Automatic annotation (TrEMBL):
The keyword Ion transport does not apply. GO terms for biological process: thiamine biosynthetic process. Its EC number is 2.7.1.49, 2.7.4.7. This is Hydroxymethylpyrimidine/phosphomethylpyrimidine kinase.
Length: 268
């Protein structure tokens, strides 16, 4: 079995459904060796975000260096980065180590509406981090915020993909989870030349806390094990579809997905 070394640079979700916790659970399920650099601690549960406590830039850099100088990284993902200062420091470390399998999930707002990225930091994402991305995985509101394009159609989504490639990303996946009112969910992949639509059945559920984190983490785990992006995306779609299809029923609000479901474990 090929063991990939996967690093997540993201925020902690005390409720365990999103952020670092979702990433590490996903890495483990997909047989990648999971490591983390925490950018912020959130007090969070299925009802919402009760508190956000960013780490110092120094603490974030030290965690990344601890991993980079000893263990090594085959692929990494970024999630909640909170501030322009943290984004600049993370980009600097990625360049320093020459890491190439970089999955940028441009987390901005929690599903309950809490800000996980300062508005002023969007420019830093575009300037410093997106150019280092092997793939960037925005949802529709994030793609709108990054490109200024209002997305109401597939053509507008394609236009947004082109803008993100122009910013320096190698590949873009604009996810379709937010496009409600259809029986299908379509994720759009663009490699700078061709578009690929990946379509699955939309599952009617309110338990979608952490879907974006889990999806990007599954791509990262597969890249870490040496898969190419197209194969990594196939696994990630199967992983997230299974995780959303069999929710755990935890908490009174928007519950987490089931990170065991891909391997067939459905707790009753
Ligand atoms: N209700 C759903 N049914 C099936 N797949 C979904 C559903 N909601 C989201 N997904 C999938 O989960 C992944 C994360 O998408 P999305 O929820 O849009 O991201 P985010 O969590 O960043 O808002 C995508 O692959 C998307 O297609
Ligand atoms: C610490 C942290 N990071 C990310 C998210 C986004 O969650 P989602 O994957 O549902 O967009 C979150 N709610 N909390």
């Amino acid at each position: 079995m090929l063991l990939g070394r996967a690093l997540t640079i993201a925020g902690s979700d005390s409720g365990g459904g999103a952020g670092i916790q979702a990433d590490l659970k996903t890495f483990q399920e997909l047989h990648a060796y999971g490591m983390s650099a925490i950018t912020a601690v959130t007090a969070q549960n299925t009802l919402g975000v009760q508190g956000v406590y960013p780490m110092s830039v120094e603490a974030v850099v030290q965690q990344i260096d601890a991993v980079g100088q000893d263990i090594g990284v085959d692929a990494l993902k970024t999630g909640m980065l909170f501030s322009a200062e943290i984004i600049e420091a993370v980009a600097d470390r990625i360049q320093h180590y020459g890491w190439r399998n970089v999955v940028v999930d441009p987390v901005m707002i929690a599903k309950g509406g809490a800000a996980l990225l300062q508005t002023a930091a969007i420019q830093a994402l575009k300037e410093y981090l997106i150019p280092l991305a092997w793939v960037i995985t925005p949802n529709i509101p994030e793609a709108e915020a990054l490109t200024g394009i209002k997305i109401g159609s597939m053509d507008q989504r394609k236009e947004a993909c082109k803008r993100l490639i122009d910013l320096g990303a190698h590949h873009v996946i604009v996810k379709g989870g937010h496009e409600e009112g259809s029986t299908k969910v379509v994720d759009l992949l663009y490699d700078g030349e061709a578009f690929t639509e990946v379509e699955t059945l939309r599952i009617e559920t309110r338990h979608t806390h952490g879907t974006g984190c889990t999806f990007a983490a599954a791509i990262t785990a597969e890249l870490a094990k040496g898969k190419d992006l197209s194969d990594a995306l196939s696994v990630a779609k199967e992983f997230i579809q299974a995780a959303i299809s069999h929710p755990l029923g935890i908490g009174a609000g928007h519950g987490p997905t089931n990170h065991w479901a891909y391997r067939g474990l459905i707790p009753s």
